Amino acid sequence: MHGTHLLLEEPIRMASILEPSKPNFFPAMTKIVGTLGPKSRSVQVISDCLNAGMSVGRFDFSWGDNEYHQQTLANLKSAIKTTKKLCAVMLDTVGPELQVVNKSEHSISLEAESFVVLTPDQDQEATSDLLPINFHGLSEAVKKGDTIFIGQYLFTGSETTSVWLEVSEVKGEDVVCVIKNSATLTGSLFTLHVAQIRIDLPTLTDKDKEVISTWGVRNNIDFLSLSYTRHAEDVRHARAFLSKLGDLQQTQILAKIENIEGLTHFDEILQEADGIILSRGNLGVDLPPEKVFLFQKAAIFKCNMACKPAVITRVVDSMTDNLRPTRAEATDVANAVLDGCDAILLGAETLRGQYPVETISIVGKICAEVSRPACHI
Fold it and tell me: HSE-up of 246 (CA within 13 Å, CB side)?
């Protein structure tokens, strides 16, 4: 062995890193789902999003009424005609989502170490001391010491726009909490998430059924994103409902895994669903941060083995307000694609972000770069 060189093949040619990125003849195999909303609903912006690489438009019914989303969809159809780019339509259900209701829409400032009461009395005004919620069973579901998170777009990780609370005591139907970090909540609705607690509400709510049977049928949706899927029965129930509607028998159901319950029943859910969405925002609350990647890798592998699409969310949060992703985010997207992820779902980044088109473009470039021949990985 003395004097001989052990030759190892480079997994990546270093020279290829210095080559400028080329527009691929074939687009990246990984699809990009863009959530359409306030910053991304004009014909021009949607056209730019399509040209940048968006191939599925997501309509999130957690906010906005049927008419609002119908106008956005009309703009999407106009953009499809002018760009000649195909784009599928995804309806995202609300599901058993707990929400804080802020009728006045005034900003609410919460101070660390102060107390705030969560009450099911929605007639009350939201203040720094009292937050009305849309659920009567919270006081029975939680106990002293439990953690509750509240945020407008569910925890970008910014300590100033989302807050975490610790349950101090339960008083009748009210839950008294200690505020653990100072934050300002803005808007009319905030998502509330209780770590590892079962919420006794149906996965497909009456509101969801109404939206699907009206807006969904009218627009012959391609995908139904089933929020908070917890059991295989949730998917079977949704499929039976779609079948009854007739027009939506071909609609594919993507089960959204958002909590411990869905994670526990993952294998049976995967058998029933047409694909899986890993909702890393909510999962990141239910799981310790160091466990999220383990579930992601295991889930993507299982989806690949079952030949069903795996979609991940919350990849470039920082691009909601910035023109470039962090290095960690860019690497995160690439690693997800290398693991076998089939689509990247952009939420706040395109819905309300300042740079929807640039976000889609950069995520698309990362996905394409992973597919280049230079990456012998």
Answer: 2
